[in-house]
Amino acid sequence: MEAFTGKLWAKQDRHEGDRLRLFTAVADAIDVGSVLYPGSYVDIAPSFVFDTVTYVDVDGRAARFFDDRRGVDAIVDRHRESTDLSTWQFVHADYTDRLDAVPMDEFDLLISLYAGFVSEHCTEHLRVGGHLLVNPSHGDAAMASIDDRYELAGVVQSRNGDYRVTDRALHSYLHPKASVEVSRDLLHDLGRGIGYTKSPFAYLFRRIS
Predict the structure, then answer these.
(1) Domain 2-207 in CATH: superfamily?
(2) pTM exceeds 0.70 for this model
(3) Residue extents of the structural domains in the chain
(4) Is 167 exposed, middle or buried (0-12, 13-18, 19+ CB in 10 A)?
(5) How confident is the model over 160-197, as pLDDT tens digits?
Protein backbone atom coordinates (compact mmCIF):
# COMPACT_ATOMS: atom_id res chain seq x y z
CA MET A 1 0.00 0.00 0.00
CA GLU A 2 2.77 2.44 0.91
CA ALA A 3 4.47 1.71 -2.44
CA PHE A 4 1.21 2.57 -4.22
CA THR A 5 0.86 5.79 -2.23
CA GLY A 6 4.43 6.86 -2.88
CA LYS A 7 4.15 6.08 -6.58
CA LEU A 8 1.00 8.17 -6.99
CA TRP A 9 2.52 11.09 -5.10
CA ALA A 10 5.71 10.95 -7.17
CA LYS A 11 3.61 11.17 -10.32
CA GLN A 12 1.65 14.10 -8.87
CA ASP A 13 4.86 15.86 -7.82
CA ARG A 14 6.69 15.37 -11.12
CA HIS A 15 7.65 19.07 -11.02
CA GLU A 16 9.16 18.64 -7.60
CA GLY A 17 8.04 21.21 -5.05
CA ASP A 18 5.92 23.17 -7.51
CA ARG A 19 2.68 22.96 -5.54
CA LEU A 20 4.51 23.59 -2.28
CA ARG A 21 5.81 26.88 -3.68
CA LEU A 22 2.34 27.79 -4.96
CA PHE A 23 0.57 27.21 -1.65
CA THR A 24 3.37 28.89 0.28
CA ALA A 25 2.88 32.03 -1.81
CA VAL A 26 -0.86 31.95 -1.10
CA ALA A 27 -0.26 31.46 2.62
CA ASP A 28 2.08 34.46 2.62
CA ALA A 29 -0.65 36.61 1.04
CA ILE A 30 -3.77 35.70 3.02
CA ASP A 31 -4.68 34.23 6.40
CA VAL A 32 -5.82 30.64 6.03
CA GLY A 33 -6.84 28.23 8.75
CA SER A 34 -9.01 25.66 7.02
CA VAL A 35 -8.97 24.55 3.37
CA LEU A 36 -11.44 22.70 1.13
CA TYR A 37 -9.95 21.07 -1.96
CA PRO A 38 -12.58 19.51 -4.27
CA GLY A 39 -11.17 17.51 -7.16
CA SER A 40 -7.88 17.17 -5.32
CA TYR A 41 -6.98 13.71 -6.65
CA VAL A 42 -3.78 13.00 -4.63
CA ASP A 43 -2.40 16.54 -4.41
CA ILE A 44 -1.64 16.70 -0.68
CA ALA A 45 0.65 19.72 -0.96
CA PRO A 46 -1.85 22.00 0.84
CA SER A 47 -1.14 19.99 4.00
CA PHE A 48 2.52 20.92 3.67
CA VAL A 49 1.48 24.53 4.34
CA PHE A 50 -1.99 24.76 5.88
CA ASP A 51 -3.08 23.31 9.22
CA THR A 52 -6.48 21.82 8.33
CA VAL A 53 -7.39 20.48 4.88
CA THR A 54 -10.42 18.56 3.59
CA TYR A 55 -9.82 16.75 0.30
CA VAL A 56 -12.71 15.66 -1.94
CA ASP A 57 -12.47 13.39 -4.96
CA VAL A 58 -14.58 10.71 -6.63
CA ASP A 59 -11.61 8.82 -8.14
CA GLY A 60 -11.07 5.37 -6.65
CA ARG A 61 -7.30 5.75 -6.84
CA ALA A 62 -7.55 8.87 -4.67
CA ALA A 63 -9.66 6.96 -2.15
CA ARG A 64 -7.08 4.18 -2.02
CA PHE A 65 -4.27 6.74 -1.68
CA PHE A 66 -5.89 8.49 1.29
CA ASP A 67 -6.83 5.16 2.89
CA ASP A 68 -3.11 4.76 3.53
CA ARG A 69 -3.11 7.31 6.33
CA ARG A 70 0.33 6.32 7.55
CA GLY A 71 1.78 6.75 4.07
CA VAL A 72 0.11 10.10 3.49
CA ASP A 73 1.17 11.39 6.91
CA ALA A 74 4.74 10.36 6.18
CA ILE A 75 4.76 12.38 2.96
CA VAL A 76 3.26 15.39 4.72
CA ASP A 77 5.73 15.19 7.60
CA ARG A 78 8.63 14.96 5.16
CA HIS A 79 7.64 18.20 3.41
CA ARG A 80 6.02 20.27 6.16
CA GLU A 81 8.20 23.01 7.64
CA SER A 82 5.84 24.12 10.41
CA THR A 83 5.89 22.24 13.70
CA ASP A 84 2.18 22.96 14.22
CA LEU A 85 -0.10 19.95 14.03
CA SER A 86 -1.46 19.27 10.55
CA THR A 87 -4.84 17.56 10.24
CA TRP A 88 -6.61 16.35 7.13
CA GLN A 89 -9.59 14.31 6.04
CA PHE A 90 -10.65 12.79 2.73
CA VAL A 91 -14.22 12.67 1.47
CA HIS A 92 -14.76 10.11 -1.30
CA ALA A 93 -17.47 11.89 -3.25
CA ASP A 94 -18.34 13.81 -6.39
CA TYR A 95 -18.14 17.49 -5.48
CA THR A 96 -20.93 18.30 -7.95
CA ASP A 97 -23.30 16.40 -5.64
CA ARG A 98 -24.37 17.64 -2.23
CA LEU A 99 -21.50 17.21 0.24
CA ASP A 100 -23.35 16.47 3.46
CA ALA A 101 -20.09 15.51 5.19
CA VAL A 102 -18.61 18.95 4.56
CA PRO A 103 -19.79 21.93 6.69
CA MET A 104 -21.27 25.05 5.13
CA ASP A 105 -19.81 28.58 5.38
CA GLU A 106 -16.73 27.41 7.25
CA PHE A 107 -13.58 27.24 5.12
CA ASP A 108 -11.05 30.02 4.68
CA LEU A 109 -9.80 28.80 1.31
CA LEU A 110 -11.48 26.92 -1.52
CA ILE A 111 -9.07 25.43 -4.08
CA SER A 112 -10.06 24.96 -7.72
CA LEU A 113 -7.16 23.67 -9.84
CA TYR A 114 -7.78 21.75 -13.07
CA ALA A 115 -10.99 20.28 -11.64
CA GLY A 116 -13.91 21.91 -13.47
CA PHE A 117 -16.47 24.32 -12.05
CA VAL A 118 -15.64 23.93 -8.38
CA SER A 119 -16.84 27.43 -7.48
CA GLU A 120 -20.26 26.75 -8.96
CA HIS A 121 -20.87 23.81 -6.67
CA CYS A 122 -18.80 24.47 -3.54
CA THR A 123 -18.89 28.19 -2.76
CA GLU A 124 -21.53 27.54 -0.10
CA HIS A 125 -18.83 25.78 1.94
CA LEU A 126 -16.56 28.87 1.89
CA ARG A 127 -17.12 31.48 4.57
CA VAL A 128 -17.89 35.06 3.60
CA GLY A 129 -14.50 36.77 3.60
CA GLY A 130 -12.77 33.55 2.59
CA HIS A 131 -10.89 33.13 -0.68
CA LEU A 132 -11.13 31.03 -3.81
CA LEU A 133 -7.84 30.03 -5.44
CA VAL A 134 -8.65 29.18 -9.05
CA ASN A 135 -6.74 28.71 -12.26
CA PRO A 136 -8.25 29.35 -15.69
CA SER A 137 -7.76 25.97 -17.35
CA HIS A 138 -11.29 24.56 -17.13
CA GLY A 139 -13.20 27.82 -17.08
CA ASP A 140 -13.74 28.16 -13.34
CA ALA A 141 -11.85 31.45 -13.09
CA ALA A 142 -14.21 32.90 -15.70
CA MET A 143 -17.16 31.43 -13.80
CA ALA A 144 -16.05 33.10 -10.58
CA SER A 145 -15.55 36.40 -12.41
CA ILE A 146 -19.29 36.58 -13.22
CA ASP A 147 -20.43 35.33 -9.81
CA ASP A 148 -21.83 38.16 -7.67
CA ARG A 149 -20.65 36.37 -4.56
CA TYR A 150 -17.02 37.08 -5.47
CA GLU A 151 -14.66 39.96 -6.08
CA LEU A 152 -11.15 39.70 -7.49
CA ALA A 153 -8.67 40.09 -4.65
CA GLY A 154 -5.36 39.12 -6.24
CA VAL A 155 -3.57 37.25 -8.97
CA VAL A 156 -0.91 34.57 -8.72
CA GLN A 157 2.02 35.17 -11.02
CA SER A 158 4.48 32.44 -11.95
CA ARG A 159 8.04 32.95 -13.11
CA ASN A 160 10.80 30.36 -13.38
CA GLY A 161 8.96 28.01 -11.04
CA ASP A 162 8.36 30.61 -8.35
CA TYR A 163 5.03 32.16 -7.42
CA ARG A 164 3.94 35.44 -5.96
CA VAL A 165 0.56 36.98 -5.22
CA THR A 166 -0.14 40.61 -6.07
CA ASP A 167 -3.16 42.87 -5.80
CA ARG A 168 -1.74 45.59 -8.05
CA ALA A 169 -3.68 46.79 -11.11
CA LEU A 170 -6.44 44.24 -10.69
CA HIS A 171 -8.64 46.27 -13.04
CA SER A 172 -6.38 45.18 -15.91
CA TYR A 173 -7.27 41.49 -15.56
CA LEU A 174 -10.20 39.37 -16.78
CA HIS A 175 -10.62 41.21 -20.08
CA PRO A 176 -11.42 38.65 -22.83
CA LYS A 177 -9.25 38.76 -25.95
CA ALA A 178 -12.28 38.20 -28.14
CA SER A 179 -15.49 40.18 -28.10
CA VAL A 180 -17.63 37.76 -26.14
CA GLU A 181 -20.19 37.99 -23.37
CA VAL A 182 -19.05 35.59 -20.68
CA SER A 183 -22.00 33.66 -19.31
CA ARG A 184 -22.59 30.47 -17.39
CA ASP A 185 -24.12 28.80 -20.43
CA LEU A 186 -21.18 29.79 -22.63
CA LEU A 187 -18.65 28.39 -20.17
CA HIS A 188 -20.51 25.11 -19.86
CA ASP A 189 -20.72 24.83 -23.63
CA LEU A 190 -17.00 25.55 -24.01
CA GLY A 191 -15.86 23.38 -21.12
CA ARG A 192 -12.64 25.34 -20.97
CA GLY A 193 -11.26 28.72 -20.01
CA ILE A 194 -11.61 32.09 -21.70
CA GLY A 195 -8.61 33.73 -23.36
CA TYR A 196 -7.75 36.95 -21.55
CA THR A 197 -5.46 39.83 -22.51
CA LYS A 198 -3.41 39.13 -19.36
CA SER A 199 -2.90 35.58 -18.18
CA PRO A 200 -1.62 34.99 -14.63
CA PHE A 201 -1.21 31.46 -13.37
CA ALA A 202 -4.22 31.75 -11.08
CA TYR A 203 -6.59 34.16 -9.39
CA LEU A 204 -7.64 34.83 -5.82
CA PHE A 205 -11.27 35.79 -5.41
CA ARG A 206 -12.77 36.87 -2.09
CA ARG A 207 -16.27 35.77 -1.19
CA ILE A 208 -18.24 38.91 -0.38
CA SER A 209 -21.78 37.56 0.03
Answers:
(1) Vaccinia Virus protein VP39 (3.40.50.150)
(2) yes
(3) 2-207
(4) exposed
(5) 989 999 999 999 999 999 888 899 999 999 988 889 99
